[in-house]
Structure formats: C-alpha cells, structure tokens
Amino acid sequence: MLQIKPILAALKRHKAGTILIAMQIALTLAIVCNALFIIQQRVERLSRPSGMNESDVLAITNRWVAVNDKDTASLNKTDVQALRQLPGVADAMATNSFPLRGGGWSTGVNLEPKDEGKPAAQTTLYFVDDHALAVYGSQLIAGRNFTSDEVIVADPKEIKSTPQVIVTKALADKLFPKGDALGKQIYLGGKDVPSSTIIGIVKQLQVPWSGTWANDFVENAMLLPAQLTGTYGIYLIRAKPGQLESIAKNAPETLLKTNRMRVISGDRAVRTYEKVREDAYKNDRGMAILMGVICLILLAITAAGIVGLTSFWVGQRRKQIGVRRALGATRRDILSYFLTENLMIGIAGVVIGAGLAVGLNLWMVTQFEMARLSVMYVLVGVVALLLLGQAAVLAPAMRASKVQPVEATRSV
Amino acid sequence: MFAYYFQLGLRSLRKNPLLTALMVMAIGFGVAASMTTYSVFRATSNNPIPQKSSQLFVPQIDNWGPEDAQRNKGEPPQAMSYTDAIALMRDHRAKRQTALYPAGLSIVPADANQLPFRENTYGVYADAFAMFDIPFRYGGGWTAAEDGSRAAVAVIGKDLNDKLFHGENSVGREINLDGRSYRITGVMDHWDPQPLFFDAVNTGGFDDATQLFVPFTRMIELKVATNGNNNCNKDPGQGWDNWLHSECVWLGFWAELATKSEADAYRSYLTGYAAEQQRAGRFRWAPNVRLRNVVEWLDFQQVVPPEAKISLLVALGFLVICLVNTIGLLLAKFMRRSSEIGVRRALGASRREIYAQFLMEAGAVGLAGGLLGLVLTGVGVYGISLIFDPQVARLATLDVPLVLLTLLVAILSTVIAAFYPTWRAAQVQPAWQLKSN
Questions:
Q1: What's the per-residue H, E or C state across B175-238?
Q2: Contact B314 A283 (CB under 8 A)
Q3: Could you give the angle at which helices B400-426 and B306-336 cross, rounded to 10 degrees?
Q4: pTM of the model
Q5: Sequence spans of domains, chain B
Q6: How many percent of chain B have pLDDT more than 90?
C-alpha cells in the first residue's frame, strides 16, 4: 500500500486527466447530495398522514345553479340524505373542505378575544356535522362528538365561531402545552365573537394545503358543527369496503336525479381520496422522480468516465507495467496501484465536492424554500462516490494486472 | 478538406466504438436533461403578451397599513379593494383600464337535455378586450356605455361557441348564465395566454383558457361573489354591502400606459390618491403604492414554479459534468493517437490542420450526441407530462426551436469541450513521437 509517492509522481505527469476525474467526482457529489436531499424532503412531505382512513373515501364538488344562497341549506340537506341512503355508502356529510383538498379556510386562534397581532396558533376550519368523525374514519382521543342538535346552519360570510369545537391533538397541544385542552375556551376573533369550548380532541387531521407555506400548521385543524349555505359545497362520502368504485359512479348520478340544476363537472369534481392525494403531491412526487433519474444517470456517466480515462492510462503504461512486473511486482501490486491511485483522486474529488455540495445547498436555501443539507447526506454521498470510483476502476486495473512482464521487452 | 476530415473523424470514431459510445451517451443524456427541464422553464417563464407587456401595468395600493405590509416585505396587498378599484376606474387616468375578478357563473344550455356546466369566467370592463389584444372571430366587445348601464351582455370563447352554437356566428343570440339571459356581443378566436397573466393571483399563472367575459358592473349589481381569493385584514361585517365597501381585497386591476412618461404620471397619480385617502382619514399611513408591468408582475407573483427553477439548475450542472466527462474521454482518445499526429505533423501538416481535424471529429461526436439527446428529450418531455402538474406539463413541448436548440447546444458544447484536448493534440512534437517508435 505504500505506493503513494510513486503514484503522486505518476499523477503529476497526467495532470489534466487527474484534474478532470477529480472535478467530475466533485461536481457529481455536489449534485447527487443535493438531489438526494431534495428527494428525501419531498418523500417525507408526501408520506405525511392525512389523519383520515383514506381507503373508501370519495369527494364530490357541487355547485348549485340559479338558486339563492339562502335556499341551498335545504338542498344540501336533501343531497346528504340521498347520499346516506345510497346502498354501499357507510356515511356522508356536507363540508367546506377536507385534508389535502387544495383550498380551504385558515384563521388565527387565541386564548383571549383578540382582533389584531399574532395569534396563538394558526388553524384550518372544517365546517361539518355530527357524522364527520365517521366519514373521516378517525377517532377521538378525548371528549365527545357533536350531537345532531348542536349542528347549526350558517352563512359563510357571517359565521365567526360555534359554541362547540373539536380540535386536533396538534392544535390542542400548541394552545395548551400542559395537555389540559379539553373543556377550555378559545377565541376565533375579537370581543364581538363569542368563545368556543373544546369538547373533543381528535388524534390527527391534516390541513387542506400541501404546499410548504402550510408546513408550520400542517396538523392544526378545527371541526365546527355548522352547515354552510352558498352555491358551492363538498360532499365527503365513506363507502362500505369494496363499494368505492360503484359509489363513484352512482353518487353523482343520484345527485343529478335529485336535482339537475347543479354543476358536477371537470376532472376535479368527483375524486377518490387516492386521487386527491395524488393531485396534492403531484409536483413533489414528480420532483423526487426527476431527481432520482438524474442521480442514477449522473452516477452512471461518472463511472463511465472513470472507466474510459483509466483504460487509456492503462493502455499508455503497458510498457511501464511490464517493467515493474519484470522487476518482481506481483499482479496484486499492479491492481492495488491503480485502486490506490483512483482512491487518491477520489478523495481529492470528494473533499472539493463536499464543499461544493454545502455551498450549492446554502445558495438554494437563499433562493428557494429549502432546508439545510444534513451532514449525513454528504457522508453517504462521499462513501458512495468513493465506492463507485473503486468499482469503475476495477475492470481496467484487472486488465493492467494481466500485463505480462515480457511486454517490457517489446517494441523497444 | 472538410469532407476528408469528417471522413477521418468517422473512421476514428469507429475504431474505438466503446469510447465513442460513452461520449455520445454522456452528451446525449446531458443535453436531454437540460433541454427537458428547459422546456418546462421556458413554458412557465414565457412572456404571454410580448407586444404589450411593457404597456400593461398592475397598480397596487396599500389599504392595510404597514403592519400587514411588513409581513410581506413591505409590499401592499396583491389584490385591490372594491373602493380603490372603483375610484381608479372613475378617475380614468390611464388610456384604458379595467378592474376584473373571476365570477362563479354556470352556463345553462338551452337544450334541456344538457346539464349546466362551468367555464372560466371573468367580470371585466369594456376596455379589457382592446387592452389584452383579445382576438375576435365574430363581433367584438361591448361598449363603455353598456358598462355604465350594467347591460346583460357577454363575450364567449371559441370552444364555448363550438359547444353551444356549433361554431356558427352567435353574435346577437342569447346565453343563459345562472338562469339569466345575456346577449352575446362577440365570439373570441382562440385566446389562451400562457402564463395567464391577467389573473396570476388566483390561478398561479396556469389555468384553462377563459371562455366567458361579462361586464364587471353587471356582476356587482347581481352580487356575484368572487370565485377567487378574498382576503380581509379585519371583519368586513355582515352582508354584501358591508363586504363591498370593506377593506377586503379581491379584485385585479390593469391599466394601459403607452409610454414611460405616462407610467410615471400614473405612479404619481397613485401616490396622490393614497395621500388623499390619508388626508381623508381612511389610511393612517404614508402612501405605499406599486406599479408593475406584465413581466415584473409575473416575476413578483413567482409564476415560474420553484420546481422548474431547481430542476433547470440541477440539469445545467448535469450538462457541465457530462462535458467534463467528454473532455476527459476526448483527451484519452486524442492522446492515444499521438504517433499518428506525429506522423502527420512530420509529413507537413500544420498545427492549424490538426486543430481543424480534431475539432471536426469532436463536432461529429457532438452531432451524434445531439441526435441521441433529441430522442431522449422527446422521452423526457413525455415523462414530464406524467409526473408534473398537467396545467404546466402540457406547455412543455418539443417544437422546432427546441429541436434546433438541442442540436446546437450538443454540437457547440462538445466543440468547446474539445478545445483543450485538441490543443494538447496539436502540441505533440513530431520528432519525439517518431523517435520512440
């Protein structure tokens, strides 16, 4: 192994090739580290739980045509009843939004009436009825569900709060870190808005948004027992196991049969929850796949480059290898010479590359909403690239070790 | 000579098929990755209305005060309140202007067997058609007088006209919107600016083409709420009228200002307007206004998705690595032929001729890489449509400029990469090579 000095001497005569390989390793490391990091962040985001039991859920977006806002309450009620009676439907409700839907309400919550300034917590509001927990398929971890007579009908422009609310554990913990949220009063506005009592705590429910801006309050959700009037609404349906497909077809048909002056069209009008999740994280997944493909190709190209240049070097040095073999060097010595040489270039490359990787990440942090690269990624990248280099150099080095001592005497 | 060198190049490439294949693949993949991501970037950073982008402006007026602006880097709200939009419309300081908002109307077909449906609909003023250079197939926009009388008129898109009237000239006919009848004054030709600049706030810049325009004034009279964002810094109070006259922001506003001096005049008018509001006691802060043209506005709205920017960057890095790789491989390839170069030099070839020969060879590699890259870009663009938001992905297409650019980038970058190896090849000393053999 103590061949470092002669290797250095040899590399000095191949400055250009050495620098090119080192540079390629450095750049590859910089990009692969950041790409892996982006992949990990995206995958982490898109595997966040919604808090719902996601199988067998269907969402239908409905818009009434040519009706007064006031009249929509009874129309919605008729719809929900029709949906609940549909064979294959376990439960259904009308709501304003649901986890990962893409749009919804968000507001500040306080422990005392407050109009301005920073709220104690940010939360999304889901206006639901007493069937909500059954439709979500999620459980209360404390308190009780709404009763049917607590559910009110309200104009979305006028409703500010309801006397009872159910909150997620994340929101409860944020507002009451001591864990005694149940039964406490909270405020969704100023002095003229009556307080709300937390009557139940649900384990988990995500906000409607998948974007990074909602990262700070991704699990802060509040359920309010109110049915909103207005021409726009959503029906969330839980099908009985195995019935989702037929419900996806029957439910819109049933609604149109009940009343045809409505619009249920467009590719987002009727979605299974699987589709909702896919839509919400389409770009995150796309980015992860793109980065993954780029990483793989990049590593392949770098490996190919190392194979190419090393083969050239081996070809160039056949005579010298022959001389060394004739002077008593074993095949192992020759093999380890090329492996060590590659390792040295590789180390130089990864040292520069680690710096570049961190630099690139720091720059991306300032340009885009990105987190700081963790050292683990750089370390994994370093090890991966050194191994890749050793693997790539193996074939040409084996060929070099097979050079016969007799070659030293040829063509002189 | 040119043809001869090209032939020599091809022959030499054939001699080392593995090395050649490696180079061609490196260039092909590198170019394809950058071109694929560039196609997305190009689509999202497109100037949607190049002939007028420097004449159309979005004014912003701070009606929320410094406390809210501070959270937004000092920027006024991105949309306008009804109070301010109407004041700007009334003052009429620009050549043309319009307030606008997406209206949630449904179209009720005359044929009772067809179900109601929705299209993207905007409430605008009559000026909008001339301002945005909207092309008409039949008829035209409504008049300013019809704005004033809150007339029940509408302009429909080509696709909607095809759907409702089978593509016939429907000017003068009626369309039923939410149970009310509107007279059609014009049918647009295909008009789908990308990004959708006039309502980047609500659409993020990408949405289906707008198929229906109705008078803003009529929508307000019918109390049609916005289908887009409505942001309030405090409780607007109950009912439509309170909301309309609140500080809630929900309207887009565009002004056409032909020259820089007109734009400057409008900017000082905005400042003056805000100062007047301050004097009247409505604003308790100094004027904070902005005036941005189309390009500045789209930039400010960050219409180019960060995904597109990051992947473009990564792909450029990718191209650089592929080129470094190519430099190394070309170096290996050229230096292997030192003796050949020595012989040629000894027989009288000048350095210049060596340069020409080897750059030509590199060019051939670049061309081959470009062709491979073209195929891979096609695959990549198709792949983009599978993995990205369809509203953006459908804009990423492999068209003639992209094909030419792909080939150009491939050849040019390979030739640039070949400079160093070629220089080394030209430095070969003939005597030295001849001696050692």
A1: EEECCEEEEEEEEECCCCCCCCHHHHHHHCCCCCCCCEEEEHHHHHHCCCCECCCCECCCCCCC
A2: no
A3: 40
A4: 0.79
A5: 2-45+305-436, 56-300
A6: 42
- Where residue B205 falls (left for φ over 0; alpha for ψ -120 to 50; beta otherwise) is left
Beta-bridged to residue B186, according to DSSP, are B139, B155
**Residue A35: its H or E element:** helix A15-46
The C-alpha atoms of residue A212 and residue B337 are separated, in whole angstroms, by 55
Chain B interface mutation, best of A284, A312, A345, highest count of B Cβ atoms under 10 Å: A312
Strand partners, A164: A197
Interchain pair B387, A24: CB under 8 A:
no
Q: What is the pLDDT of residues B104-115, one digit of tens each?
A: 888 998 887 888
Mutation pick from A13, A20, A267 vs chain B, by most beta carbons of B within 10 Å, is A20
* Residue A11, phi then psi, degrees to nearest 5: -65, -30
B280-317 b/e with 16+ CB inside 10 Å = b?
eeebeeebbbbbbbbbebbeebebbbbbbbbbbbbbbb
Give the nearest partner residue to A286 out of B18, B180, B387, using CB atoms: B387
The nearest CA of chain A is from the CA of B148 a distance in Å of: 25
pLDDT tens string B361-398 = 888 888 899 999 999 999 988 888 777 777 777 777 78
Residue A233 to residue A296: CA distance in whole angstroms: 45
Place of tokens 């639901």: A128
Q: Is the pLDDT of residue B230 over 90?
A: no
Decide: A352 and A331 in contact? Cβ < 8 Å. Answer: no
Q: Are B263 and B256 in contact (CB under 8 A)?
A: no
CB contact under 8 A, B388 and A261: no
Residues ≥6 apart with Cβ < 8 Å to A276 = A59, A98, A100, A101
Tally Cβ neighbours within 10 Å of residue A191.
10
In which residue are the tokens 């390629």 written?
A: A24
d(CA A272, CA A283): 19
Q: What is the radius of gyration, based on Cα positions, of chain A?
A: 32
CA angle A197, A198, A201 (to 5 degrees): 170
Q: How far apart are CA B332 and CA A312, in angstroms?
A: 6
Chain B interface mutation, best of A231, A283, A295, A385, highest count of B Cβ atoms under 10 Å: A283
Q: Where are the alpha helices (DSSP H) in B280-399?
A: 294-300, 306-336, 338-346, 351-387, 390-393
Dihedral-angle region of residue B39 (phi above 0 means left; psi in -120 to 50 means alpha; beta otherwise): alpha
Contact assessment for residue A254 and residue A72, using Cβ atoms and an 8 Å cutoff: no
Q: What is the ipTM, given to two decimal places?
A: 0.74
Q: Measured between alpha carbons, how far is residue A353 from residues A28, A300, A342 in Å?
A: 7, 17, 16
Cβ of A20 and B327 within 8 Å? yes
pLDDT at B435: 65
Query: Does residue B91 contact residue B250 with C-beta atoms inside 8 Å?
Result: no
Label residue A179 left, alpha or beta by phi (over 0 means left) and psi (-120 to 50 means alpha): left
Question: Between B25, B309, B322, which is nearest A368 by CB?
Answer: B309
Q: Which positions in chain B touch A309 (Cβ < 8 Å)? A: 328-329, 331-332
Of residues A115, A301, A369, nearest to B321 (C-beta): A301
Tell me how far CA of residue B223 lies from CA of A71, B216, B220, B251, in angstroms: 16, 11, 5, 14
The dihedral built from the CA positions of residue B74, B79, B83 and B85, taken in this order, carries a sign that is: positive
Q: Encode A82-94 in three state secondary structure.
A: HHHHCCCEEEEEE
Chain B: give the shortest CA distance to residue A139, in Å. 33
Q: Give B-chain residues touching A301 at CB under 8 angstroms.
A: 25-26, 29-30, 321-322, 325
- Determine the residue type at A12: K
Tokens, residue B30 = 């590198």
Domains of chain A, residue spans: 4-46+283-409, 67-260
Contact B29 A301 (CB under 8 A): yes
